[in-house]
Amino acid sequence: MSHLSSSIGYEIKRIRKEKNMTQAELCKGICSQAEISKVENGKNSPTIDWLQQVAKRLKVPLSMLFEDHLRSDMFTSYDQQLLRLLQSHQFEEACMIIDDIKNKIDYDEIKFLAMYYEIIIHEKRNFRTYLETIGEFKQLLMHTSLQFKSPTLYLRIHMAIAISFIEHEDFDSAENSFQELLRFNYDTIELKKVRIKILYNYAKQLSEQNRNQLGLEITEQGIQESLQIEDGQLLGQLYYQRGYFKKILNRNPSDIQKDFTMAYSLFRTFNLPVHEKILLEKNSSFVLFRI
Fold it and tell me: Are 198 and 181 contacting, i.e. CB atoms less than 8 angstroms apart?
């Protein structure tokens, strides 16, 4: 389903909840409740006629149902810019964009994004200790509108906390963070994609603790969920991770070969040369063929 369908569904759900209206009340005389649910979760593409009826029932202009699409595009643009600057250690340039967002942008979720990157930059520049950084992340999570307006960012912040604990070998706190994350309600395709990243990072933590059997189970869960939603974003890394766990656990060599070969094929398909290089350096003997 398209990004536009997903964003329209999100906006309908947001306005409906804002008006304390149930799905049954919204759909009466328009369609079934199941249809409303599918649209809100980005699983169906609504027609213009259908949207006009829904907008009338919600007592909002039709254009308002497309507002989230504009916000989402702006969010993605700023996210990509700031991530690129962060990765290249261009902190001053990133801070200029963050200040620009604070002064000129009215959308709360984009302001939250700026605050998220500002916290990361402060730690990268040694302005904060890792515990102070976690404290600031937790303060950001306390904004009541964050989880509703940008659930993906809400989850990213939680994941950043968990990863920070791993990096500083506080595995008990990391475990608690991952368990809290996995209790979240992942009711849209976009959120399910975030959940797959969480499973991948959780399994990485388990490998560092030599909890390899559980790590294998979590990785297999990630693979199955990726296949269910036809998302290949992390599938290569997950197959690599499963091959790694099977190798450590002395599983069937042919199964290990299948996983590493699948990972290699996906790295080639998605043009991930760094991942491909690491795989071939460490596990080339398990790759059945090369492209």
Answer: yes
User: Is the same domain home to 134 and 224?
Assistant: yes
Residue with tokens 């996983």: 259
Backbone CA torsion sign across 92, 96, 98, 102: positive
* pLDDT per residue as tens digits for the range 20-69: 999 999 999 999 999 999 888 888 888 888 988 998 999 887 777 776 66
User: What is the C-alpha separation between 6 and 13, in angstroms, rounded?
Assistant: 11
Give the N- to C-terminal CA distance of the chain in Å, as an integer.
31
Query: What is the CB neighbour count within 10 angstroms for residue 190?
Result: 18
* Same domain for 121 and 21: no
| DSSP code at position 95 | H
Counting as low any pLDDT under 50, the low residues of the chain are 1
CATH number for the domain spanning 99: value is 1.25.40.10
Rounded Cα distance between 218 and 30, Å, is 42
Q: What confidence score (pLDDT) does residue 5 get? A: 65
The residue among 60, 87, 103 that closes a domain is 60
Q: What sign does the CA torsion over 10, 15, 18, 20 have? A: negative
